[in-house]
Amino acid sequence: MISPVIIYFIIFSYIPMPGAYIAFVDYNIGKGIFGSNFVGLKNFEFLVKTGDLWRITKNTLLYNLAFLALTNISQVAFAIMISEIKSRWFKKLSQSIILLPHFISMVIVGFFAYNFFNFNHGFINTILTNFGLAKHDFYSDQGIWKYIIVFFKLWASTGYGMIIYLAAITGISSEIYEAAELDGATAWQKIRCIVVPLLKPTFILLFLFGLGGILKGSFDLFYNLIGNNSVLYKQTDIIDTFVFRSLVGQFNFSQGAAVGFYQSLFGLILVLTVNAIVKKIEPDSALF
């Protein structure tokens, strides 16, 4: 039964691995990957000198750390709240409403954001105009977009992760709750002393999985919200959007591959390091 999964990873993850060699050559389509001139670390050197590597790494790390922390906290909070709802139909309705944004395309989200923040006919600026206030050019304001992006990420991701935590809460033995009730524990005390501690292994596991992709940004989210607006690149440009522009706009395959190689290597080292720390502190919660 696991053979289709193994075949999938061999075809799409292991066979393409030699393509990482593009990061170390001046890639020429006519000569091919291994026929192109070897340039060593020149592609990485260019990124370091221009400052692009530091900028996109910083943005990607900060955004993903915010995503990782805030989404996990919101997922735990919503899972606990949903589990405490007594009405069965209202619980299912609430769960469905929170989960729905996960299935909405980021293209639609980008369209929604544009109609909301557009300078000429956007919803917010229309309201400001009706109240006699000056319009605000959101698409020229670098500082505000980090909050907008984090908001949309939370909106889209909370529902899916909530299901995982909700399943963990459902798996908690009813005998533990009964023992707590006999001791006179309130609902809040049961959440604080039973639910939250028992969710810790799930939280750590999901956190470690999230760290593996901490340098892999949500390309669909960033690109559909920001697009090719160079005014906002300083605050919103991440590794994935930078690689996309290198390939599509400049046809610089070598530079894009160099950033992708750096991204994967950094993620691997980070996961191994954090897993080693977790293994020493709490061995049962480590990945391996």
Automatic annotation (TrEMBL):
<feature type="transmembrane region" description="Helical">
    <location>
        <begin position="147"/>
        <end position="172"/>
    </location>
</feature>
<feature type="domain" description="ABC transmembrane type-1">
    <location>
        <begin position="57"/>
        <end position="278"/>
    </location>
</feature>
<keyword id="KW-1003">Cell membrane</keyword>
<feature type="transmembrane region" description="Helical">
    <location>
        <begin position="61"/>
        <end position="85"/>
    </location>
</feature>
<feature type="transmembrane region" description="Helical">
    <location>
        <begin position="97"/>
        <end position="117"/>
    </location>
</feature>
<feature type="transmembrane region" description="Helical">
    <location>
        <begin position="5"/>
        <end position="24"/>
    </location>
</feature>
<protein>
    <submittedName>
        <fullName>Sugar ABC transporter permease</fullName>
    </submittedName>
</protein>
<dbReference type="InterPro" id="IPR035906">
    <property type="entry name" value="MetI-like_sf"/>
</dbReference>
<dbReference type="InterPro" id="IPR050809">
    <property type="entry name" value="UgpAE/MalFG_permease"/>
</dbReference>
<feature type="transmembrane region" description="Helical">
    <location>
        <begin position="260"/>
        <end position="278"/>
    </location>
</feature>
<keyword id="KW-0813">Transport</keyword>
<keyword id="KW-0812">Transmembrane</keyword>
<dbReference type="InterPro" id="IPR000515">
    <property type="entry name" value="MetI-like"/>
</dbReference>
<feature type="transmembrane region" description="Helical">
    <location>
        <begin position="193"/>
        <end position="215"/>
    </location>
</feature>
<dbReference type="Pfam" id="PF00528">
    <property type="entry name" value="BPD_transp_1"/>
</dbReference>
<comment type="similarity">
    <text>Belongs to the binding-protein-dependent transport system permease family.</text>
</comment>
<keyword id="KW-1133">Transmembrane helix</keyword>
<keyword id="KW-0472">Membrane</keyword>
